[in-house]
Amino acid sequence: MKVDNMNANVDFTTDDDVDAMLDDIMCALGKKIIEEDNKTAVVNPIRVQQVLYTYKLLKYITQGTNAKVTYELYSPLKSMGSVTVVGKNIVFKQHNWFIKAVEFASNFEAYPKLDGTVEMNFTFHGLTKHVE
Question: Residue 59 in 3-state DSSP?
């Protein structure tokens, strides 16, 4: 059962049918992502600046804590970037600035880790624009 032939009226009859459909969807999605990432693109300087601002802001509002703040540009795709905060006791004294950092991000997630720390990830899309 291929994604191109996917039909909302198709019923799964076995676990293998479910696995096959999920595999097809993931393969199609992967191909689309690689295709998009291989297109010629230019840097979106405003969006890159938002990543760097968020990084600097989070470094500032976590100073004096055990939090480690890092950032990445153009990873895992050239159109993406991220800022990560990891620490045991992360305290933000300026909540309104933290909220601004979340607003700049395309996605925000926070979760506890097995080592007793908490990780917060601010993901940014649109660091590049396709040249058509």
Answer: helix
Residue 124 to residue 80: CA distance in whole angstroms: 6
Distance, CA of 39 to CA of 131 (rounded, Å): 8
Cα separation of 3 and 1, whole Å?
A: 7
Tokens representing 92 are 């933000």
Q: pTM for this one?
A: 0.78
Locate all alpha helices (DSSP H) within the chain, ordered by sequence: 15-37, 45-61, 95-104
What pLDDT score does 1 carry?
44
